[in-house]
Amino acid sequence: MNPDEPSVMNLCWSSDDMPNQATMLTVLTETEDTPRAWLETGEHLMQVLLEASGYGVNAAIMNLPATSTEVREMITSHVGCSGDPILLVRFGRPSRKLVTSRRPLVGLMLHPGFRH
Predict the structure, then answer these.
(1) Which of 8, 11, 18, 88 would be a feasible disulfide site paired with 62, CB 3.0-4.6 Å?
(2) Residue 46 domain boundaries
(3) What does DSSP assign to residue 56?
């Protein structure tokens, strides 16, 4: 990625005015539909997700716009994107930290289904 070259990925729309400020929905668009653009879009998205993670912000990626022409057209008509919408990304902080139960390693290794 060269920062002097024009980007192939745009932040088309952001819901930062939503009543619940705990989340933000964004629409990412591509200006080109080429393998190079797909790769660069992934690289840019990776940088955004890593930066968000550093601030304790989680992301949920929805790729339905990339797989459905109808969804792309609906998003474009509702939010006025330039370029093709390819991803919806919801950013937010969890309201509480979820802790999942874990088996002790010894208990897992001694389980009848464990094969080594």
Answers:
(1) 88
(2) 9-109
(3) T
